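Problem 12. The chain below contains 112 residues. Write out its predicted structure in token notation.
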Amino acid sequence: MAQTNFYERVYAVARHIPYGRVTSYGAIAKFLGAAKSARMVGYAMNGSHAAGDVPAHRVVNRLGLLTGKHHFGGSEMMKQLLENEGVKVEDNQVQDFKELFWDPSENLTRHL
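Solution.
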């Protein structure tokens, strides 16, 4: 699978993450049939600004940590975007992560 095609598939999944919810790099990778490619999903999120309307701030690591925050033009921007959606963040970690977690495997069909 070409990297560009993979990135576009990542962006398609990310665009479905509901307002006020979060998912993880690994959950997106698993949904796309590339379970060991969470890091590649992270690389895709790093470049998502060029892809347009990708809510990359809603993608965090498997523990709910804002590990991609340094890609948001300021260390607090990712946190601010999440908090604007009602997501509580403390010490760079999404609070109530399990309740806010959105699993693409449970919410999307495979042909994205």
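Discussion. Strands lie at 23-24, 59-60, 89-90, 93-94. Students who got a different answer should revisit the alignment rule from Section 12.3.
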